[in-house]
Amino acid sequence: MPSEEILGVARLIKGAKKVVVLTGAGISVESGIPDFRGPDGLWKRYSPDKVGTITSFLSNPEEWWKMAQEIAPVLFNAQPNLGHFALAELEKMGKVEAIITQNIDGLHQKAGSKKVVEVHGNVRSASCVECRKKHSIEYVISEVGKGNYMPQCTDCGGVVKVDVVMFGEMLPEEAISEAYRLAQECDLLLVVGSSLVVYPVAALPGMALNRGAKTVIINMEKTGYTKYANYHIYGKAGEVLPQIVEALKIL
Ligand code: APR
What we know:
This protein has 251 residues and is an alpha/beta fold. The chain has a domain at 1-33 and 80-120 and 171-251: Rossmann fold. The protein has helices at 4-15, 42-45, 48-51, 54-59, 61-77, 82-92, 107-110, 137-145, 173-185, 204-210, 237-250, and strands at residues 19-23, 98-101, 116-118, 121-128, 134-136, 160-164, 188-192, 214-219, 231-234. The strands form 2 sheets. Strands 3-2-1-7-8-9 form a 6-stranded parallel sheet, sandwiched between helices. Strand 2 (98-101), helix 7 and strand 3 form a beta-alpha-beta unit. It is elongated, with a radius of gyration of 19 Å. The two termini are 12 Å apart. It binds adenosine-5-diphosphoribose (APR). The site of adenosine-5-diphosphoribose (APR) has 21 residues, from loops.
């Protein structure tokens, strides 16, 4: 029998007109991809100031590539987990309008979710930091494989960088505008696996609350928005989300 809080969340989803989901690195931890600020997070092993900013990348790309090469095998071989599949099922059931994700791993799409807004980019392509010309990820990986940590743009010779957003960079305009629209139009925002500390994405729950939306947080740790949430379920996304889907089916 589902717990009272699982049933409570399922009732909120059932009664909502427009459910939007916001995911962070925590939903992919059960797929083997480390998060950033959890106990085994990437920022416990690497300093974001040294390898996470656009200025540090341009002045010393080798550091960023060393970290990227450590997680690349895990990232490229990762499979969706039960949390990703549960969200894809909710979309199929017509219960989720869209997923706004901070993740670059593409696992929501692999799990079958159709409407996914990638606000921090993805690892499927690369662009020149000067003229923005698109390059294939294969081109970049082959250059780095030859020891060239600053692949040159085939048009202007500028540095080509994987299309993930680094600190100090603008977010993809279309994606973040869509995320703002979704947060302001939803009447229920589900936040899954995010510490909600990185802006502008961390402003999304506040935007939803200001419009009177209800919020639910599924996260292993407390967040700054926990006190405003209708529910904060402490648990693993891959365990909690399937329970919510099952509870929804018996309501
Ligand atoms: N299920 C649910 N929550 C989990 C799980 C899990 N299996 N594993 C970890 N978590 C929680 C952690 O407790 C943590 O609060 O997920 C949260 C992940 O938070 P972060 O590591 O800060 O990741 P995120 O919120 O996505 O970070 C935002 O910061 O460094 C940048 O660009 C990077 O997109 C990233 C952004």
